[in-house]
Design goal:
This protein is mostly helical. It has one domain (about 50-180): Tetracycline Repressor, domain 2 (Orthogonal Bundle). Helices cover about 75% and strands about 0% of the residues. It has 9 helices and no strands. The chain has helices spanning about 1-10, 20-25, 30-35, 40-65, 70-90, 95-105, 110-135, 140-160, 165-180. The longest helix is centred in the N-terminal third of the chain and has 25 residues, at about 40-65. It is elongated and about 55 Å long.
């Protein structure tokens, strides 16, 4: 149900996603909602958002582990490629559930605003650590991780609106070299 809720939020936002729809999408019995989520929709949405923050963190770590060229720009391109595939496979119908939920609920639900903060922090931390691993000074890595996520989220929104991947191209083309310029070359052991 958590995964189904996250997928529906990606397409419809929080307010556009109903509890019955989540149960149907998850192919779960209706009574399971009250059993597993006694706090109702807000509890289920919270769990879905935290789960998606974990998914983004795992994606970042996987992208880092699979890099052939160990540069910040290569990491950015790899992360962007995962979103290219998602948007293409879903015909631009689904974006990031964290942004969808933020636009929909951050001003109306203090609990969801805090959950969103935790979900984004859960994504920022491994991204910042990955940048340090690629030579970005630790005193710059947190800010650059924020810049990457902010730019990526904007590119996802623009790609969905335009129904093309050009915003991703611009992101990689313009931000990648800036990230590489900040990175120090790795010191090899002799």
């Amino acid at each position: 149900m958590v995964r189904s809720a996250a997928q529906l939020i990606r397409r419809k936002g929080v307010s556009g996603t109903g509890m019955r729809e989540i149960v149907t999408e998850a192919d779960a019995p209706r009574g399971s909602l009250q059993h597993y989520f006694p706090g109702g929709k807000e509890e289920l949405v919270s769990d879905a958002l935290l789960w998606m923050g974990d998914v983004a963190a795992r994606r970042t770590k996987r992208c880092l582990s699979e890099l052939e060229s160990r540069t910040p720009s290569a990491l950015l391109a790899s992360i962007v490629d995962t979103w290219r595939r998602d948007l293409t496979n879903e015909e631009f119908s689904a974006g990031c559930p964290l942004v969808a939920a933020a636009a929909d609920t951050a001003a109306t639900s203090e609990r969801l605003r805090q959950v969103l903060g935790r979900a984004f922090d859960g994504w920022l931390e491994p991204l910042s650590e990955s940048l340090v691993d690629l030579g970005v000074p630790i005193d710059r890595s947190d800010n650059l991780a924020i810049v990457i996520i902010a730019a990526l989220e904007g590119a996802i929104i623009l790609a969905r609106i335009r129904r093309d991947l050009t915003p991703f191209d611009a992101l990689v083309l313009e931000l990648g070299p800036l990230l590489d310029a900040v990175a120090r070359p790795a010191i090899s052991a002799t």
